[in-house]
Specification:
The chain has helices at residues 8-26, 35-45, 48-66, 70-93, 110-118, 121-124, 129-149, 155-165, 181-204, 207-242, 248-255, 266-284, 294-307, 309-327, 338-358, 375-380, 391-410, 412-415. By secondary structure, it is mostly helical. The protein has one domain (3-203, 292-415). The protein is globular, with a radius of gyration of 22 Å.
Length: 441
């Protein structure tokens, strides 16, 4: 998206999601001090993923509605491939001390899901926004219920369940390789639909009306999720008596649980996704002429971080998940010092994002896939959507990456635990790791 045409609410919510990600990740260092506090912080951080998926879809839909051309779709596809291929390496590399030795690159991270979903752009170019909203809601609901009720048994079933629905009943060889791809697709499609509505409302001069509706809808979703979570406690005794033998009691109770993210539940999407939608709506109601307002002064730094969302996310991964363990000062991160470190990380993230935006760094996040050069040919349908000399390269790279990862997963049971042991478990000799499950004696 052109920097001059960016939407403040989208960028701001992306930036706010980065803060929630930091809160979630810093919680891992507090498990030994207070498991309850760590669990609560992780629950607060759950707002990051649905909000970020919605904003990614919203930005995609906004661009496709503003310019429904092959060039726009290919530009989004190119960014999706970059996020999927390069983003995977950058993010997974930061996990080498957080996961069992040699398993870092076997993990599915959020950038993988977003990259794959962005590659759907050519299919969504002319899709009506309301159809996308209904499709996204149905895809999410059905896939969530299926994921909660299905217990894979065979090896192919375990693989499909892990990669598409984040089902992990203990059959996976490592702690990675799980992602709710299909439910995430539902959230993304909802975002694309909203993005197209935002574009249409801006063109028709009804932006404030749509912002009001988004604020109301997001707030209603949050309240509905809270109500469902309360009702869950009253239903639990009866469900366990009458429905437990058929396993539906667990499905229903989990569906109403806000904090269940793998697989993600209906209440989880309503609550945390509702927060993201409501924020977009409320921020869309801000009047730009009120330059001195406190809200705008707080929102703009978040928007700067959101404009460089991938760089901000990767930086945060390395400063929170890698550096403390690499240097050996994770024992200093306590309930008192962790907020200070998180604040320093946020300041650093802001300044890096500011420099990145000023120098238009987002233009570097490309694999070089070029759209048609002649708009008149594109409109007439005679332009070639894919450069013939680059298509085999792109297809080969993506196929090799996917095949390599699938082979690593299939052979993980035979290679664990000594595979790819290029990094020692405890990289610093002057003190043992203190995170639960990582004590080195």
């Amino acid at each position: 998206m052109d920097e001059r045409d960016r939407l403040l609410p989208i960028d701001a919510v992306r930036g706010i999601a980065m803060l929630f990600i930091g809160i979630s990740h810093i919680s891992f260092y507090l498990i030994d001090d207070s498991a309850t506090l760590a669990s609560d912080l992780r629950a607060i951080g759950f707002a990051a993923t649905p909000s970020f998926l919605l904003m990614s879809g919203l930005a995609c839909g906004y661009q496709l509605a503003a310019s429904p051309t092959t060039a726009t779709a290919l530009r989004i596809l190119d960014r999706g491939l970059f996020v999927f291929l390069v983003g995977h390496l950058l993010v997974c590399g930061s996990l080498v001390y957080m996961v069992p030795v040699g398993t870092a690159f076997e993990h599915i991270v959020i950038t993988d899901s977003i990259g794959v979903l962005l590659c759907l752009a050519p299919l969504l170019k002319h899709a009506p926004p309301r159809r996308l909203l209904w499709t996204g809601a149905v895809v999410y609901l059905l896939s969530s219920v299926l994921a909660l009720s299905w217990h894979p048994i065979t090896r192919p079933q375990v693989l499909v369940g892990a990669l598409l629905f984040a089902i992990n009943d203990g059959g996976m060889p490592d702690i990675g390789w799980v992602t709710p791809t299909i439910p995430y697709c539902g959230i993304f499609l909802l975002g694309v639909g909203v993005g197209k509505l935002v574009s249409q409302s801006r063109q028709g001069g009804s932006s404030r009306r749509l912002s009001s509706r988004l604020a109301a809808a997001g707030s209603a979703a949050v309240l509905l999720a809270l109500a469902a979570n309360v009702v869950r406690h009253f239903l639990k005794p009866g469900l366990l008596v009458y429905w437990a033998p058929k396993n539906w009691a667990d499905v229903i109770l989990t569906t109403l649980n806000i904090r269940h993210d793998a697989p993600p539940t209906l209440s989880y999407a309503l609550f945390y996704g509702g927060i993201g939608v409501a924020l977009v709506g409320y921020l869309g109601l801000l009047r730009r002429e009120e330059e001195g307002s406190l809200t705008l002064r707080l929102v703009r730094p978040a928007a700067v971080i959101g404009r460089a969302s991938l760089v901000s996310y990767v930086l945060q991964q390395w400063t929170i998940d890698f550096i403390p363990l690499w240097v050996g000062f994770e024992s200093w991160l306590t309930p008192v010092t962790a907020p200070v470190y998180l604040a320093l990380n946020t300041v650093l993230m802001y300044w890096v994002a500011l420099l990145w935006v000023r120098h238009q760094g987002n233009r570097l996040m490309t694999l070089g896939l070029r759209p048609p050069h002649h708009p008149t040919q594109e409109r007439s349908g005679t332009a070639h959507a894919w450069p013939h000399d680059r298509l085999p390269v792109f297809v080969s790279v993506v196929a090799i990456v996917i095949l390599t990862n699938l082979l690593a997963l299939e052979n993980a049971a035979m290679l664990t635990p000594g595979k790819l042991a290029l990094v020692p478990t405890n990289p610093y000799p002057w003190g043992p790791a203190r995170i639960t499950g990582r004590h080195s004696g």
